[in-house]
Specification:
Blueprint: H1 3-22, H2 35-42, H3 44-47, E1 52-54, H4 60-63, H5 66-85, H6 95-104, H7 109-136, H8 144-166, H9 171-182, H10 191-199, H11 206-237, E2 250-252, H12 253-278, H13 303-311, H14 313-334, H15 348-377, H16 389-408, H17 411-434
Antiparallel strand pairs: 1-2
Length: 453
């Protein structure tokens, strides 16, 4: 065939060839191969799945869908955040005004803000619960690298929530970030440097707004995407869900797993959109740096640190968070047991001692808080800041580690018992901090604050 003939023939067949050769459906498997395998290789989203999964992975009670929920909420955050960026202006003069425009002038602006806010809160909850699920099932065993990647994802998620909290540039966000940044003053060596790095100075101002915006829309999302890609890659390489040794029954991922995941993702998006349609994202008054809020509170996911710092700056700002973070990082290296892998709280003896010490930690927390708040109300606060509920819970956590490990003869029981006590303390301090009113005085939720605040 001549050159011109070949060229004309190629042009004539170009649409058909483009459709066949560029679309994802160009199947490398030979004819007659497994249809489920061929379908999974065909599309990018499906290719993220293994060809086959265990029947156990299909049970909703194994993972509770928490990893999938977290990923879905992140996609909702990314999409709504990209749309919000079209109207938001990251400058002290225009930031709050642009938020007012989104709330009242832009079509569906209030809905987008609400979707972004509630998806962010939901992602914080699901990523925390996902970490707890992996811990409770011992799913960090033989997955040390992926466990550390997961901790990095948790830290990045907290960073995204914290940097986004300042962007409305209203009284609530300004003073919450101010309080949170001041907590860094209690971190030795690196605290002052980190504060100056994030704020661009000693206090929240224009430089802090620009830096938080850059972190929120560029640096931290890129970091999270990178960690997420590595996390999913390691999940595939490590063999999927953690389970005890054996030969589990396998089923094709398509359609069994893929359709279940699609249903969960759609349910999560529907829930976020419904919540956003019913509840607007709050927006306070423009900032007034000369009129501090009373009480000045950190965001809810950091208020537990603020509550402990009110007892003791070294214990609440450094020792408690530092020991908790260290224990989480060392967990897969301290626990080397394979018995009961993939089961909630492991074998029977491990489960009994871990949950028992967790219950003891709850009783201890209630007792410590009752004594401390009673002493404060009576004007008889402890003379030393070492005598406080945070220090008491650290002691109980240490006793739980030694007691459960010795009695159950298990390092997993020791780690789980200690982490359960620390979790009880974290949630408890968060709840107490939410009940703080003016001048950081404790009020029950049904009690009115003085002056009708």
């Amino acid at each position: 065939m001549s050159f011109l003939g070949a060229l004309l023939e190629n042009l004539r067949l170009l649409p058909r060839r483009a459709w066949r050769e560029l679309r994802p459906g160009r199947d490398p498997l030979p004819p007659g191969g497994d249809e489920a395998s061929r379908r999974l290789r065909r599309a990018f989203v499906l290719h993220l799945h293994p060809l086959r999964v265990t029947e156990r992975a299909l049970s909703p009670w194994v993972t509770l869908g928490l990893g999938l929920l977290t990923g879905t909420l992140f996609l909702a955050l990314a999409l709504s955040g990209a749309l919000l960026m079209v109207y938001y202006v990251p400058s002290p003069e225009r930031a709050h005004a642009s938020m007012l425009d989104l709330q009242h002038a832009v079509a569906f602006g209030a809905f987008l803000r609400a979707v972004h806010r509630w998806a962010a809160h939901g992602m914080l909850v699901t990523v925390g619960l996902h970490l707890l699920r992996v811990t409770a099932q011992g799913a960090y065993r033989r997955r040390e690298l992926n466990w550390l990647l997961g901790l990095g994802l948790l830290g990045t998620t907290l960073g995204l929530a914290f940097t986004g909290y300042l962007l409305p540039w209203d009284q609530r966000s300004f003073w919450a970030v101010t309080v949170s940044a001041n907590l860094l003053d209690h971190v030795p060596w690196l605290g002052a440097w980190l504060k100056a790095l994030f704020l661009g100075g000693d206090q929240v101002g224009p430089a802090a707004l620009v830096r938080f915006y850059a972190l929120h829309v560029a640096v931290l999302p890129a970091l999270l995407l990178g960690l997420l890609a590595l996390h999913l890659w390691r999940l595939r390489k490590d063999g999927g869900l953690a389970a005890s040794a054996g030969q589990p029954a396998l089923v094709p991922a398509w359609p069994h797993l893929v359709l279940r995941e699609a249903a969960v993702a759609l349910a999560a998006l529907a829930a976020v959109c419904t919540l956003a349609a019913l509840l607007d994202a709050p927006l306070g008054a423009p900032i007034d740096p000369h009129l501090p809020s009373n009480p000045e509170k950190a965001p809810w996911y950091f208020v537990w640190v603020q509550e402990m710092v009110s007892y003791s700056a070294p214990v609440g700002g450094v020792i408690f968070p530092g020991l908790l973070g260290l224990l989480l990082c060392l967990l897969p290296f301290l626990d080397r047991e394979d018995e009961g892998l993939g089961r909630w709280f492991g074998p029977g003896r491990v489960r009994a001692w871990a949950l028992g010490w967790g219950g003891a930690g709850l009783l201890a927390f209630v007792a410590f808080e009752a004594l401390y708040l009673g002493a404060q109300a009576g004007g008889d606060a402890p003379a030393s800041d070492l005598w406080n509920p945070a220090t008491g819970m650290l002691l109980v956590a240490g006793l739980a580690f030694l007691g459960a490990g010795t009695l159950a003869r298990s390092t997993r029981a020791a780690c789980l018992a200690c982490l359960l006590v620390l979790l009880v303390a974290l949630v408890g301090f968060m709840a107490v901090g939410q009940c703080r009113g003016p001048d950081w005085v404790f009020y029950w939720p049904w009690e009115a604050w003085p002056g009708g605040v």
